[in-house]
Amino acid sequence: MKKLLFPLLFLSLKLCAQDAAKIHQKAILIDTHNDVLSNELITKFDLGKRQTEGDFDLVRAKEGGLDAQIFSIWCGENYGKGTAFAFANREIDSLYALIKRYPDKITLVHNSAELKKAVDQKKLAALIGVEGGHMIEDRMDYIDSLAKRGMNYLTLTWNNSTSWATSARDEVTKKDSLKFLGLTDYGKQIVKHLNQLGVMVDVSHVGERTFYDVLATTTKPVIASHSCAWSIDPSRRNMKDYQLKALAKNGGVICLNFYSGFVDSTYSPKVAVFLHQHRAELDSLTKIYNDGDLANIRLNAMYKAESDKIRPPLSLLIHHIDYIVKLIGVDHVGIGSDFDGAESYPLGLDSVSDYPKITEELLKLNYTEKDIDKILGGNVMRVLKANTGK
User: Are 133 and 224 in a shared domain?
Assistant: First the structure.
């Protein structure tokens, strides 16, 4: 009898993997947040070809079953009036250039109908998310301009607050010194204007007061493009249970961030030790790239064996998904990896080619094919259609 157990277990696992592969390929997979464009301006990588560094290229995206990618347009708070909007357009230009070089592999889409058409054509559907309200430079016409270029969502703040909305970082660390909390009247006008344009409002990075002001103002469902559950990892970037419930009531979707620091509450102290041990190399890389985040990513690649030891297990990310599903329902969960925007992700998630592992793990937890379809992209499609009208 014991001799039969191992073959039977092996066969069961093989069948499960085959089922997962079929379900994964059949589903429309949408990742709502990837920072590769910010890095490409520095690295000059040809994203149409397989790369040995970074998390994304069109080859690995195809292998991972990725159907639609919302590319993050981002610049740090050192950019402001006179520079931030121009930098945003420079990143959009780089996406346009990629599409022009590989028109048979990737195409720009503006709504769910165009997204489905791209999937039928076996092309990656490219969408645009502007990560940080400072890039509109307090100008409503800049919102119009970005929307015309394809902006599908605007993340109201990055870590830095704007003159009209307060961020999660600032509401926590600067609360007593802030001139206001939440949305100003102008901030509410911006939310209403985004609704009118069919641009999704993204509440990742915003403070709690801003979050609730948004829900009181918007007439359409919102998105949290790359966040996790605060109850599992109490990072200020994650969402608390009552926020998640409010998001569900709005009809919105939280898309799970893969970054180790938002998945694992024990990661931050461990990575602090790692960075201290390699401070000299990190300083040198920062000077080379003139970008601290990219330097950190490169440092972790250089010392991969050490970095891997402090990465959380994939099961912990799945726990975030399962926790939120059980709290607010399967209709309000999606995928927002933050690939190419961080130095570490759970073990097994090394690039966009690894998305199928999530489907495998959900299947092991007895999620149905319908549930998995919703999590991988169906829920985001619903919110996108509710905002654009098509």
Answer: yes
Phi first, then psi, for residue 165 (nearest 5°) are -155, 140
Shared-domain flag, residues 305 and 337 = no
Domain of 245: which CATH number?
Answer: 3.20.20.140
User: 44 phi and psi, to 5 degrees?
Assistant: 65, 25
Please give the Cα distance from 346 to 248 (Å, whole number).
26
The rounded distance, in Å, linking the Cα atoms of 206 and 185 is 16
Question: Both tokens of residue 55?
Answer: 């998390």
The pLDDT value recorded for residue 118 is: 98
DSSP state letter for 167: B
The Cα 41–Cα 29 span in angstroms is 26
- CA–CA distance, 114 with 117 (Å, rounded to integer): 5
The answer to whether residues 282 and 328 touch, using CB atoms and an 8 Å cutoff, is: no
Which pTM value belongs to this model?
Answer: 0.94
Q: Are residues 229 and 340 in the same domain?
A: yes
Q: What is the pLDDT of residue 285?
A: 83
Q: What is the pLDDT of residues 123-179, one digit of tens each?
A: 999 999 999 999 999 999 999 999 999 999 999 999 999 999 999 999 999 988 999
Range of the domain at 117: 28-264+313-388
